[in-house]
Design brief:
Radius of gyration: 20 Å
Oligomer: single chain
Largest sheet: 4 strands, mixed
Strand content: 5-15%
Number of helices: 4
Structural class: alpha/beta
Helix content: 25-40%
Distance between the termini: 18 Å
Order of helices and strands: EHHEHEEHEE
Number of strands: 6
Length: 110
Amino acid sequence: MKLDMGLIKNIDQTPSTQALVHSTIDYCHQNQLLVIAEGIETESEYNTVKDLGADFVQGLLYTSPDKSIRLAAPIIPASLPSTAQRTGGTNALSPPKHRKLRCSSTAFVR
């Protein structure tokens, strides 16, 4: 489960959010789910989510998003029929244009 950066921002200064995140992490671990804390920007936020039991962290403290990665084709669920199957004709989709993706690394908490 990925905890949104809205929960993580300033978590080191907000006891009520710490309680919510701690309960969420406990629930996830009881159900064999790993937890990623997104949006870690300070050492204090890192130390707090580590103490609360997060398995992974992600955020600007470790690396900034890589804007150079491009997706060559759109991601389409395999269960959707192609244009040719839907229309009974040839596939009328033009070659996809490259789209930029924002990616960042995830670190394992030890």
